[in-house]
Every structure is written in structure tokens, then in C-alpha cells.
Amino acid sequence: MLFSGLEILPPDPILGVAQAFAADPSPLKVDLGIGIYRDEQGRSPVLSCVKSAELSLQQNQASKAYQSSAGNPEFNLATAELIFGANHKALTDRRAFSIQTPGGTGALRVAADFLRVRDPSTIIWLPDPTWATHQPIFAACGLATRKYPYYDAASAQLLFDEMTKALSEAQPGDIIVMHGCCQNPSGADLNEGQWRQIAALIKSIGAVPFIDLAYQGFGDGLDADAGPVRMLADSLPEMLVASSNSKNFALYRDRVGALTTVAQDRKDGQIARQHILQAIRANYSMPPDHGATIVALILGDADLRAAWEQELDVMRTRIKTMRDMLSQELTSLTGVDHGFIAGQRGLFAKLGLTPAEVAYLRQVHHIYITLSGRMNIAGLSANNVRRVAEGIAAARARAAA
Ligand code: LMR
Q: 278-314 pLDDT, tens per residue?
């Protein structure tokens, strides 16, 4: 029988937390699981600029006829400009172009399909730790992955020397996956000097960086967060970027993202584009239009764009405030300096909690984080941050007893 004899699967490491949270009847429960921006009231509202663009789309959209496997051309241009800045040489030389995909996950999967067809022996290097879905995406395409050390949660240290040592074993043509900003799950990003060293190392090897840019605008700002990608495009002949608009436009369920390629020249770029479009056609054929068209409308209209940037500023500022508050509460409750939380960026922090401590937090304090110890900082609020810090301090004290 087709459907009998299948094994029961464990819950997804991230989506499973959302399911467990939904099933908890406690009024005290706190969701620090899936990476969604939440406001002080715990909501994830539709942005006002998105509402305005949707209204305009509803009134003015003339057709829903098919576009192409590359999606909305205005969205693609606006995305490339958002990532690189309008006057970046990679754009003016036409070495770089973006293709709309269903979210950043779709971009990763399309790239993985392309890479496997191009050369099934391609090795994908992933940071340890990384987003829980990276490895399964490449594995689903039959590509081998290797890990390089990135962050030690127990000591809250970036493992830069270990990272460069491991990556120096990479071979020409290997793909090095890195988070462009707001590293998921650690929140720890390389500094500018470290990025330059990595660029030089990748160049000397002849490997290719693949930047996962899911949080542009959630770290230090739209341009600052894209700084590493821009520098890599200046320094290296080739690169891939998977970008997402789930977070920075709060369009999570509309699945908006892009795969951007930087080739050594225009001709290579155009041929690679044909291969990527072929991979898309054989997969989902064309990406869903709605969210990408909303993003294109906002980025193409000066007023809507200014309104979006303001809403993004509010989100970024609140995340920083919550980082500061959690860091202060934990430092005062444990007597151990937690200033690193305030110094890191984006939605996530990984505090080195063991699976037993994570289970204790869930069962006793109704605080939900992933089993790996990752917490979504945006799930905190002035109302719950003290209680969350107390739960973490109690989990640690209990483990130490
Ligand atoms: C996360 O890391 O929680 C988000 O990127 C959502 C997801 O798809 O896992």
C-alpha cells in the first residue's frame, strides 16, 4: 500500500513550536518560536503601506494573466536595487539580476535545483549553527552539505578562527552559505574586517558565496545590512543571494522572495538565468504574484516607500529595545553579563540552553523557544520580558543545582 508502513515523523523544529504553543491553554504563554516580528501586543499586523498598495492594486490591476517563470519584472529590478543599491557596478554592468521566487525558501530551493543539475557533486558549506531548514533543502536536491563552525552559544562567541580554518578546506566551485545579516539563529554577525577576510579566502579558493538575506532592514538598516553582499559583489566574480520579503514587508504568508545571481559578465549571467528559469518551470512554473506586486508598488512609489521605511524603522527599533531589556534583566537576575544579546542583531538569540532547559521553560513557565535554544526576541514585550528572564534564570539555576 502506498500510504501504509510510513514512519511517524518528528515535528518540524520551528513549525512544531508554533503547534505546541497553539495547543497550550495557559494565559501566561509566550511565543518565542517561529521568526515573526511581533509588536508590543504580540500581533503581527499587516503593514499600513501594504494595505495602501493592496487597495491600489484592487482598483487598478487590469489582468491576472500569466506573467513568466521569472515573476514580476518591476519587483525583480526593485529587489536587485534594494540589495545592491541602484548604482552598484554589478547592476550597471548587468552582471546581477533577480528572479522572483516563493519566499527566500523558494530561492534556496531553486538555487539548489540549479546547482544539482549544473554539477551533482557540488558541496554546500553551511554555518554551524544555521537555520534548521538549510540542510534539508540541499539534501532534498541530493546535494552533500558540510558544516563550518560559526558560533558557540555556551560562551556566546563567534568562532571566526575555526570558521576560516574549516573553510580553507573548501574546493573550487564549492558553495559557501552565509547569512547576510542578523544570523539565524545566533544574531551574531561578522564585522566588516571579518567579511573582508572571508571574501579574500573565498576568492583564493575559487568557491562561491551563497548569501541568505532574510532580514535586510532588521539589523542596522537597509543599506548597512546589505553592506556585506555589496562588498562581496565588488570583490568576487560570482555569487548567489536568496532574499526574502517575509520579514521586512511582513508578507510572511504571501511568499515573496528572490534568487539573485551575480555572474562574472553579462553573457554568463543571461545563460545562467535561462537555466534557473528552466528549473522553475519544471517545479512550480511561476511564482505567486500578489505579494511581489505589492512590494513592487511600494518600492516604486516615493510616498509608499517612505512609509514602508518608517514602519521598518519601528520594527527594528522595537527589536533593539527588547534586546536591551532582555540583556539587562538577565544580567541583573543571574549576575552574569548578558550584554552580548544587546550587541547582536535581528530577531534571534541563542542562549546555549540545553533541550532539558528548553523543556522546563515550556512545561513550567509556558515559554516556547526552539529545542535548539533559539528565541525570537520580537516575541518579547515590556509586559513579559521580566517573566521570560526569570524563567531562563530559573532553568539555569535548576540545571546548576
Ligand atoms: C524562522 O527561522 O523561524 C523563520 O525563517 C520561519 C521559517 O520558515 O522557519
A: 999 999 999 999 999 999 999 999 999 999 999 999 9
Measuring from atom 9 of ligand 1, which residue has the nearest CA?
A: 14
Compute the distance from residue 130 Cα to the ligand 1 centre, in Å.
Answer: 11
Cα dist from 219 to 101, 179, 183, 188, 232, whole Å: 23, 12, 10, 11, 18
CA pair distance 25, 14, nearest whole angstrom: 20
Say if residues 246 and 257 touch (Cβ distance below 8 Å): yes
Q: State the distance from the centre of ligand 1 to the C-alpha of 7, rounded, in angstroms.
A: 25
The residues lining ligand 1, judged by C-beta closer than 6 Å to any ligand atom, are: 14, 34-35, 131, 133, 184
Active-site positions read 131, 212, 247
Q: Which three cell numbers stand for residue 29?
A: 504563554
Of all protein residues, whose CA lies closest to atom 4 belonging to ligand 1?
35
CB atoms within 10 A of CB 132: 17
Question: How does pLDDT run across 307-349, given as a tens digit for each residue?
Answer: 999 999 999 999 999 999 999 999 999 999 999 999 999 999 9
Output the pTM of the full model: 0.96
**CA 14 to centroid of ligand 1, rounded, Å:** 7
